[in-house]
Amino acid sequence: MGRLVVIEGLDGAGKRTLSEGLTKALHAQGASVATLAFPRYGRSVYADLVREALHRGHGDLADSVYGMAMLYALDRRGALGEITGALERHDVLLLDRYVSSNAAYGAARLHQDAHGEFVAWLKELEIDRFGLPVPDLQLLLRVTPEVAAARAEHRARSESDRAKDSFESDDALQARCAHVYDELAGESWLSEWRVVDGTAAFDPAELSRWLVHPG
User: Fold this and answer.
1) Statement: 3-212 belongs to CATH 3.60.130.10
2) How far apart are CA 125 and CA 112, in angstroms?
């Protein structure tokens, strides 16, 4: 089985850029790589409902923290076969967001920390009940909420299909989410974590070598 590696971070942290850089570096080392991003917009009805709700569709659905978390979780549950198949065929499966995103944003919306009842509920739902595989490693791409907000704003202006949603537009939520992410990483929630400074230059080749040979 391949290694399940997850890239986590705030909206606008640069997760897609990190994923692309790691993919190229891993290929250069001869490793086979599969990638998948959540939510699976355009491929999953649950993901599409999430996007519509975040842009104020479906009435007050987006106001329900548990309701939105369930949609995110069902999107991942629907991808279980794709995840396990990719792990069987490739050395590394890189995921852009996974269970910890749901944990961080849900807890932040409820003004809870990583030790609150929401995070415990989510682990029971996605890992224990839905049977999603536990990551081998989670990479926290850490940037300040201010940097993430500026990047998200630039992306919204430059890409016609990347308008900011209600979560990305909530600066206070992003700040609380960053705090929960730090807590999850600090206590190695679900797996080992490694923090990557998203505002400094880093070498994808060095990080990819560590992914292939963690010892």
Assistant:
1) no
2) 18
> With the CA atoms of 79, 83, 84 and 88 taken in that order, what torsion angle do they form, in degrees rounded to the nearest 10?
150
* Cα–Cα distance, 105 to 96 (Å, whole number): 15
CB atoms within 10 A of CB 17: 14
Q: Are 127 and 174 in contact (CB under 8 A)?
A: no
Domain ranges of the chain: 3-212
Please provide the DSSP assignment of 19-84 as one string: HHHHHHHHHHTT--EEEEESS-TTT-HHHHHHHHHHTT-STTGGG-HHHHHHHHHHHHHHTHHHHH
pLDDT surpassing 70 at residue 214: no
Each residue of 79-137: pLDDT tens digit? Answer: 999 999 999 999 999 999 999 999 999 999 999 999 999 999 999 999 999 999 999 99
* 3-class DSSP assignment, residue 199: coil
